[in-house]
Structures are given as structure tokens and as C-alpha cells.
Automatic annotation (TrEMBL):
Entry GO MF terms: ATP binding; ATP hydrolysis activity; RNA binding; translation elongation factor activity
CDD domains: CD_eEF3
A Pfam match: ABC_tran
Organism name: Micromonas commoda (strain RCC299 / NOUM17 / CCMP2709) (Picoplanktonic green alga)
Biased composition range(s): Basic and acidic residues: 468-486
Residues spanning the signal sequence: none
Location of the ABC transporter domain: 120-445
Annotated pathway: Protein biosynthesis; polypeptide chain elongation
Intracellular or extracellular location(s): Cytoplasm
Keywords, sorted A to Z: ATP-binding, Cytoplasm, Elongation factor, Nucleotide-binding, Protein biosynthesis, Repeat, RNA-binding
Entry GO terms, CC: cytoplasm
Region described as Disordered: 468-505
Principal cellular location given in the protein's record: cytoplasm
Designated name of the protein: ABC transporter domain-containing protein
Amino acid sequence: MKLALARAMCLNADILLMDEPTNHLDVMNVKWVEEYLLGLKDVTCVMVSHDTGLLDRVCNNIIAIENLKLKQFKGNLTQYVEKNPKAKSFFELKSSTGFVMKFPQPGFIEGVKSKGKPLMKMANCTYTYPVNSVPTVKNVTVQVSLASRVACVGPNGVGKSTMIKLLTGEVVPQEGTVWKHPNARVAYVAQHAFHHIEQHLEKTPNEYIRWRFQHGDDKEALAKDTMVLTDEEKEKVKEPVTFEIEDEKGNKTKVKWRIEKLTGGRKQVKKEVEYEVQFVGMSYNSNRYVSASKLAKWGFSKHMLVVDEKVAQRAGAFSTPLTTANVEKHLEDVGLDKEFGTHTRMSALSGGQKVKVVIAAAMWALPHIVILDEPTNYLDRDSLGALAGAIRTYEGGVVMITHNNEFCSALCPETWLMQKDPADGIAQCNCKGDAEWMAKAAKESVQAAVQLDEITDALGNVVKIEKEKKSKDKMSRKEKKQAEKIRKAKIARGEAVSSDDEDWD
């Protein structure tokens, strides 16, 4: 974006046409754009923007499009809204037309009973790009749960997107560890979201989603370094491994077989997961399940990650039949009417409509965690308000990189502040978790089947949750008897009894 602005400046134009000039820019650069435009005395500037502050401080004429007609108004945005109350959504984070955006709920995840239980973790991660000698990020420690509402903030180029790539496994840290729950589904809408659909512009959005998930797997999933074998790993998995087989008489013999591949089968056996393997030169009937610990020792760790990803994705993608009607309804839930979702090629869609296509596709597999990199780019004010509403009612975790302070302040009590350490100039992450909010979110969740005793914030701090006590007059007869029984037991043990416990006579 800065390069595009610089090229435009070099033209010394008489008329400057700008389409969303603040997209992707941090607050300092947005301020620079504003001051530059205000300093142009002999240049006419015409801009399309959904940035309320920019329009209000820079523009002295407003041209609104209503019912396919242009209406011109002399004055800034505040003055325009005073004369046209229907446009007040420019100053509110809600839809003025009543448009509602809905995300599909993630559903149950095996082994997770608390919304505060981490589903993704990074610990002390440092990453240096191959072309650099200095790390881009250093000693980053974060975690994400179903209760997370995180805004990742910081200046352009400080390493926010790199941290997210580490978290999602797109790149591998040189130091530190990254972990994801094997049954967790993660949707990642990248900063340059259009790269998902650039090769499919002749398809309609409906056709694109049906193509992308036709076999259950996400064909557009990014190639992750965490799942790509190195040459050394490729050689290791070719080595024969020892198995013990037993004949009909109970005699045991050790044999050496080569594993050809993991078939994709997976099952839980007591406390360990086992994966189905197929052997070189042997029929499907010879397949057997092998424990994860053995496969890891033999060099199949990345193969298991691939299986985990496919099992998790298919569980979500196959939950709703992949029909034209179902995809059409899904697209409408994110604000893309069937006229555009089913009957219009993507090459004819606006930037905001393309963003909705990418968000809809990411949500098809019912993710437990949604990671949005600059989700507000290209969205109009109505869609921005609707997106905020969808995030508020979503039962999964949300992490967003954004420069929109209004958006993140309204939605995200947790922040990951990425900034460079003055001592060495390397980006580090300062996390601030809001445990009280997570406790409240978990308590109010319609899917919360278990009362939480504790939650964990973004840094892993365990916080006890104070249970709300019922007064005596609000208790049922059974609850009163139980409370009296507990009170007498405390007295018998010689424990102190609170004033609430004593007030029974």
C-alpha cells in the first residue's frame, strides 16, 4: 500500500483517485496519509473509503450512492450524517440496515470440557527468515482457547503476521515449541485474503466452496512447513521397522517391514492414539494400527500431523451436506445474497464481497479457532457492524490482527502487543489477558455444560473463579439441606464458618 501511494505521489497528478487508501496501514501511516492529503492545495482527491476518521478529517464533499443514484453533499462526514441520520452507522459498530452476519458454531471437541483449556500454544518461539540475520520475532509465548478474544496489534512490519504463521504451523520456529490440539479445527484468513480465490475467478462463490471441500479436505489450505518432510526425514521413513507377529499357536516372531504410508485411520486406545499404517508390497488386509509413540520414534511425526488435520477438517466439513442450497444459505449468513453467491462469477465481485467469500469458505468446516489477519479491509460499515455481531455470538476462539482500534476495543479484552525491543530492535510480544471476561463468557455460553472452577489467560496464568452464592431465601429445600449438612461438617472438623453459613436459625 505504501508503495502504491509513493508511485501516485511521483506522478504529480492534478486528480488523485484513491480506492481504500488506508487498507493494511497502521495508525501512524494512516495519520501520514491524512496529513499528506490535507497538504495538497492544488490537487483534487476523490476517494472511496470506509475509514470514518479519514473521511471526517480530510473530505469537504460527500458523494453517496443510493438506489443507483449519486447524491452530492457539501461538508464533511459528521455534517453529512447530521442531515442524513440513516448514515449514522459510519459512527457506530453496528448495521444500520438490520443486516446480521452469522458464523456456524464449532460444536463439541473431544477431551475439552472447559472454554479456557488451550487448543493452541506457542512457547518461547524465535523465528528468523532465511534472508535475514536478525530474528523477526523472539521469545513469543501465547495460547488460544475457545474463550479467547484476542487483538494482535502493533506497527506495520513488526512481525504480527509472522507470529500468526508460527502459531498456525505455516512456518517452523528455530527455537521454541508450537502445539495444537489434534481435534481442533483452525480457520486462517490471511492478510492478502484474495490469494485463496485468484485462480478461481471464473467460478461463482458457490461453485468455489463446493470445489474446495468436495472431498472433505480443504484444498486451499496453506502448505505448512510443519507438514513438509525434509530430505533427511524422507530417508528415515524408508527404513524397515521391527514388528512382532503371532501365529495361530501363539508363537511370536519378529519381522522387519517397511511402512508405505499412513492410511488416514485413527483411533484412541486407552490413553494413546493409534494410526493405521499400510506396508510396502502388502495388501490392505495386512494393515495394522500402531501407537503414536512408536511412529514418532520411526520418523512419522509429520505424517501423523497430516492425518490429524484431515480427521479434524472432515469432521467439520462433512457435518453439512455440500449441496448448492446449503452453500447458498451459508454464503447468505455472511452477507452474500444468492444473486452474488450463486449466480455471479467472482471476477465481477467487489473487494468487500470477495472478503465475504473467503470468510465463508474458511467457516465451512466449523472451526474451533478463527484467525483473521486484517478482517476489516474492504468491508463497508454495515458489514463491519455485522461482522462484529457475528464474532460476539461465536462460541469459538477468535484472534485478529487489526489496526482498527474501534473494532478491537469493542470485541477484544485480550491484546497481544507486538513491538520492537529498544535494546536489540527485535520484535517481542507483550500479552495482556482478561480473565474476568473469559470467566463471564464461559458462564454465559449456551453450550457450557460444565461449571468452571478456573480459567487460564493468554499467558497460562490459572485464575480461580468465584462462584456466586445463593441466599437462603432463594434456595430450594434440597439445597438448604445440603448447605446445612456442609455447615455441620465444617463445625465438626473445627473449621471456621462464614457469616453466610451461620445465618440459619
